[in-house]
Amino acid sequence: MTTLSIEVRPASAADAVALSNAHRQAWQYTYSGLIPHKALTRMLERRDVSWWRKAINGPATVLVADMNGDIAGYATMGLNRARGLPYDGEIYEIYLKPEYQGVGLGHVLFTESRRLLKSLGCRGLVIWCLEECQQAASFFRSKGGTDAVEGMEDFDDVKLKKLGFVWG
């Protein structure tokens, strides 16, 4: 019998390659066919290993879901970037490699991200997702989020609506 070990921990510089790989797999799986190909390719190329090394040492917090030494996914969080909203914290991203989706790791990353933001004194939080990403929207609703705000993202002149889910 094999025992699986799941650890959610802050990312380290040694995780940069694995984070770049997890990001690429998750974004290709999630956004292929939704975000125009050229725009998506540019976004993936921009998030290379050096980008992740800088992000790990930057102002945002990067958490990884480590499954027996394999980075299954990650979450990034920090202060709310939409200053017009009355929420202090923001979870910028929660992504999992496709083979790890649907087994509860998103819940673990969300719960730990929310706990961490609260421990830093953040009152309330917001998370954005594209409206057409029904899996993400359903996930955030299942965690008690209310899609209270909307915005638009422009990808090579293709405008996609985004939803801001909030927790007080």
Concise summary:
The protein is α+β, with helices and mostly antiparallel strands. The chain has five helices and seven strands.
Question: Which features does this protein show?
Answer:
168 residues, alpha+beta, Aminopeptidase, seven-stranded mixed beta sheet
CATH superfamily: Gcn5-related N-acetyltransferase (GNAT)
What is the global morphology? globular
CATH architecture descriptor = 3-Layer(aba) Sandwich
Low-confidence stretches: none
CATH class: Alpha Beta
Total strand segments: 7
As an assembly, this protein is single chain
- The percentage of residues in β strands lies in 25-35%
Looking at CATH, which topology would you report?
Aminopeptidase
Q: Report the average pLDDT across residues.
A: 95
List the helices and strands and how they pair.
Blueprint lengths: L5 E5 L5 H16 L5 H10 L2 H8 L4 E7 L2 E10 L9 E8 L8 H15 L5 E6 L3 H9 L3 E10 L2 E10 L1
Parallel strand pairs: 4-5
Antiparallel strand pairs: 1-2, 2-3, 3-4, 5-7, 6-7
Helix pairs in contact: 1-3
Write up this protein.
The chain is an alpha+beta fold and 168 residues long. It has a single domain (6-167), classed as Aminopeptidase. Helices cover 35% and strands 33% of the residues. The chain has five helices and seven strands. It has helices spanning 16-31, 37-46, 49-56, 105-119, 134-142; strands at 6-10, 61-67, 70-79, 89-96, 125-130, 146-155, 158-167. It has a seven-stranded mixed β-sheet, sandwiched between helices. The longest helix has 16 residues, at 16-31. The protein is globular. It starts with 5 loop residues before the first strand and ends with a strand. The model has no long low-confidence stretch (mean pLDDT 95).
